[in-house]
Amino acid sequence: MKKNCVFIFILIFVLALAFCGCDADEISNWGDKLSPWGDKNVENNAISDNSSITKTYRIYVYGAVANEGYHEVEEGEVYLAAIVKAGRLDCSLIPANANSLVDGSQKTIAVHYLENGVEHECYNVNSVIFSLRDSTKFYGLSDEVVNKIADYLETNDVIHNKTVLREVLGEDDYQNYHYKLYVAEADYEEVD
């Protein structure tokens, strides 16, 4: 009689599993995931839930910011979060797409600056146009600043970050002009 009851119980159990759509592979893995009481076995075989993992993106922020470089933001935040992490300045002009949700489609953000009510783009410090040494080609840069950058580029190839730019310009010129200049992502190297 006991054998018949066990057989009937197993038959009902197998039919119920077949009815709910479970396959043999799922059933054979249950022992790894569940305790005999049907609870998650947290100590030995915790079931991971990857749906709650948030992606993080490194966004290169350059231009009129205090800390040009890569800044991490989570998927679902707005790109403005990267600009804030980069150190938004009083003259920083927030791009139109700054309130878009971060989804990994955009990896860089250029921050222009506002001066006397007019928007201006920043200049790439490694541009060959500095070799002309003509400050009229650069709105708002002095002859001295243009020459300091040109001199450095002639002997050192590229400026890799704004720490190097600070050394090239000196503290006073850096404070007056750094927000008008940027290092392109291709030339950028993080400071150790």
What would your notes on this structure say?
Helix 5 packs across helix 6. The chain is built from 6 helices and 7 strands; from the N terminus they run ααββαββββαααβ. By secondary structure, it is of the alpha/beta class. Strands 1, 2, 3, 4 and 5 form a 5-stranded mixed sheet that branches. It has a two-stranded parallel ribbon with strand order 6-7. The relative contact order is 0.11.
How do you describe this structure in short?
With 192 residues, this protein is an alpha/beta fold. The chain contains six helices and seven strands. Helix 5 crosses helix 6.
Which spans have pLDDT < 50 for at least 5 consecutive residues? Answer: 30-37, 40-47
H/E element string? HHEEHEEEEHHHE
Coarse structural class? alpha/beta
Global shape: elongated
Residue share in helix: 25-40%
Report how far apart the termini are: 78 Å
Question: What average pLDDT do the residues reach?
Answer: 82
Q: Helical region count?
A: 6
| Quantity of strands, as a count | 7
Roughly what fraction of the amino acids lie in strands? 15-25%
Helix and strand topology:
Blueprint: H1 2-20, H2 24-33, E1 56-63, E2 69-74, H3 80-85, E3 92-93, E4 108-115, E5 118-120, E6 123-124, H4 143-156, H5 162-169, H6 171-177, E7 181-182
Parallel strand pairs: 1-4, 6-7
Antiparallel strand pairs: 1-2, 3-4, 4-5
